[in-house]
Amino acid sequence: MILIADSGATKTDWCLISPLATLPPQRIKTQGINPFHQSEDQIIDILRNELLPQLSALNCEHPMRSIHFYGAGCTAEMKRHVEAALRKVFATFPTQPSAINVESDLLGAARAVCMHQRGLVGILGTGANSCLYDGKDILENIPPLGYILGDEGSGATFGKILLNQLFKNPNYTRLQEQFLAYEHCTQSDIIERVYRQPLANRYLASLVKFAKENVANPLIEQLVVQNFDAFITHNLLHYNTSLRDVYVVGGMAAAFPEQLEQACQQRGYTLRHILRSPIEGLIEYHKNNATQR
User: Fold this and answer.
1) DSSP 8-class letter at 185
2) What confidence tens digit (pLDDT) does each residue in 73-110 have?
3) Which residues contact 65 (CB under 8 A, 6 or more apart)?
4) pTM value?
5) Which own/partner contact pairs does 25-33 have at CB distance under 8 Å and 24+ positions apart?
6) HEC secondary structure over 230-284
7) Environment class of 73 (CB within 10 Å of its CB; exposed 0-12, middle 13-18, buried 19+)
8) What is the C-alpha separation between 151 and 90, in angstroms, rounded?
9) Residue 73: its pLDDT value, please?
């Protein structure tokens, strides 16, 4: 059996798969794991208290061959903390894995959406990231810088753009009224939520739902395309490659595929594939790798 994990800030999607497809994939969810924000002991507690009981409940009799963990914050320096936690927790598991591999969420996204194809890869969810991928490794990565300094194309950055236009651009007056009624809030409530409460990035990204329901409005669609164009301008255009094939993972991209394709075409890129979540692609990637050995 192979255990795969895709971990973000709020949750981790786990999937236990049989490389020979003798058993259906078994899915598990735990809270998010990020070594930048959690100590090794905290990660161990999550694995022991949330993951192991669910794995045990599956009553899987097949040995665990390997674990492949892809997560936010898993840089070359920090991923060793996640690997150490996994090794300590699974040291007492009935079937200890022979290999534990911890990689970044960006490599996970690239493998999920590209498999072994070369291409430009984007993560466009609450946050954003990108890379040049050669079908095996990440060759280049433009730093995303987070939603305050960067994260162009993301849901959080779109939320900032939307609010800015709703309250500053007179062309958006009617949309502003519609938005405030939709969100059951006032301008003061928004300022409170963004500047005085935690996790402003998640709140800003939540505004994508309003945009999705009103994307037929040309003003909304224009902002969506502009957000994607900024992602291309400040990220994809800076990679040292002639490649023009783009592969994207994330909820923002999945919510507006036509607008993302339009932005790509305007800049001479071809949008090849979109996945809402990497886990489905990672299941296929690791199944294929296992059967080819």
Assistant:
1) -
2) 898 889 999 999 999 998 877 667 778 999 999 999 99
3) 1, 2, 19, 97, 98, 99, 290
4) 0.87
5) 25/283, 26/58, 26/60, 28/54, 28/55, 30/54, 32/7, 32/8, 32/72, 33/5, 33/7, 33/71, 33/82
6) HHHHHCHHHCCCCCCEEEEECHHHHHCHHHHHHHHHHCCCEEEEEECCHHHHHHH
7) buried
8) 36
9) 85
Q: Which two tokens stand for residue 58?
A: 């599956």
pLDDT tens figures, 141-174: 999 988 899 999 999 999 999 999 999 999 999 9
DSSP letters for 203-226: HHHHTHHHHHHTTTSHHHHHHHHH
Spatial contact of 210 and 182, defined as CB atoms under 8 Å apart: yes
Residue type, 117: Q
CA atoms within 13 A of residue 269's CA, in its CB half-sphere: 29
Confidence bin at 61 (pLDDT 50/70/90): low
Residue 97 in tokens = 């894995």
